[in-house]
Amino acid sequence: MENIELYIESTIEYYNQNAVAFVSTTVGADMESIYEEFEKYINIGGCILDLGCGSGRDSKYFYEKGYHVIAFDAAIAMCEETRKRVPIEVFHQRVEDIAYAGKFDAVWACASLLHVARDNMHVVLRKVVNALKTEGILYGSWKYGDNERVDKGRYFTDYTEKAMIMLIESLRNVELIKIWVTEDVRIEKSDNRWLNILIRKIGV
Asked: pTM of the predicted model, to two decimals?
């Protein structure tokens, strides 16, 4: 696919232009079963990076549970939506530009890395893993499939179990805890399927 960077920029602009509508369809989504899986591996008070915070739904949940939360999003309108909902640091930044080292007990990347170009996914995941402390946990989710596509102005890279496992195996010092497929929790999107992963950083 040509002009991927232009598609990614148009994706960011989509969220800036459609922030209110996007929030209305996502902020009330029931993520309880995913939270439960994620929180098995984190202690209350731990430091979580909400990578691609969107509406602020998940940052709010983790903050109110007693975690220390830092968030960022590539769309400034999404940063503003998160700031409305939770009193935490929210940075306007693309996931490709993450530059932390050994800071977080966990990274929550719910439906955010799916906008990273396929050819750049290994580099971005390496940066995300580097942001974790040793034994830190990453949760990520992608739409299920094997396509690289543009849908209504947004760029997506979809993954299957096989492709994701190959990607994870190419990373150093990580172990796959769990990989599973779920249906979309939004009733109007129930025909969508999501690939979910939990991985642990096991070395420096």
From this structure: 0.93
pLDDT digits (tens, 9 = 90+) for 91-150: 999 999 999 999 999 999 999 999 999 999 999 999 999 999 999 999 999 999 999 999
Environment class of residue 176 by beta-carbon count within 10 Å: exposed (0-12), middle (13-18) or buried (19+)? middle
Q: In what order do the strands lie in the sheet with 47-51?
A: 89-92, 68-73, 47-51, 104-109, 132-143, 193-201, 174-183
Write the DSSP string, 12-28.
HHHHHHTHHHHHHHHTT
Tokens representing 170? 């190419």
88 phi/psi in degrees, rounded to 5: -130, 170
| Amino acid found at 98 | I
Strand partners, 195: 142, 181
Kindly state the tokens that stand for 158.
């979809």
CA-to-CA distance for 62 and 164, rounded, in angstroms?
A: 26
Class of residue 84 by CB neighbours under 10 A (exposed 0-12, middle 13-18, buried 19+): exposed
Distance CA 57, CA 25 (A): 11
